[in-house]
Amino acid sequence: MKRVLYVEDDRINAFVLTKLLEGQVEIAVVPDGEECLKTLQAEQYDLVLMDINLGRGKMDGVQTMKKLKEIPACQSTPVFAVTSYANPGDQEMFLKKGFDAYFSKPVDKVRIIEAIKMYD
């Protein structure tokens, strides 16, 4: 089973996506970018789901993703943007910034599971 790290500062959003992916992946949740980087230096994950607006943290999701890609063991780890940014052009913008996939909230269960499975 794939190990997924979800970076999300909102407990309700974290709970909802964790329930959506239950039985499909092994998922751990951290509340901010700093905790994400600490966790990835200690443990290996197959994929990272990244909220963009991490209110409590010092870094947003884009900054966290860029720092994550500087960790040698994580350079090839796929990072999906999971965000409430859903305006025209947002998907293209986040993909250009370096995310491997983009999902606006509320997340489509079938679509995100298919995307996760693509990264075998």
Molecular structure report:
This protein is an alpha/beta fold. It has one domain: Rossmann fold. The chain is built from 5 helices and 5 strands. It has helices at residues 11-21, 33-42, 61-68, 90-96, 109-118, and strands spanning 3-7, 26-30, 47-50, 79-83, 101-104. Strands 2-1-3-4-5 form a 5-stranded parallel sheet, with helices on both faces. Helix 2 (33-42) packs parallel to helix 3. The longest helix has 11 residues, at 11-21. It is globular and about 30 Å long. It starts with a strand and ends with a helix. The model has no long low-confidence stretch (mean pLDDT 95).
CATH architecture: 3-Layer(aba) Sandwich
Q: Provide the spatial order of strands within the biggest beta sheet.
A: 2-1-3-4-5
Query: Structural class, from secondary structure content?
Result: alpha/beta
Total E-strand runs: 5
Distance between the termini: 10 Å
Largest sheet: 5 strands, parallel
Per CATH, the class reads: Alpha Beta
Specify the oligomeric state: single chain
Q: How much helical structure, as a percent, in the residues?
A: 25-40%
Number of domains: 1
| Low-confidence segments | none
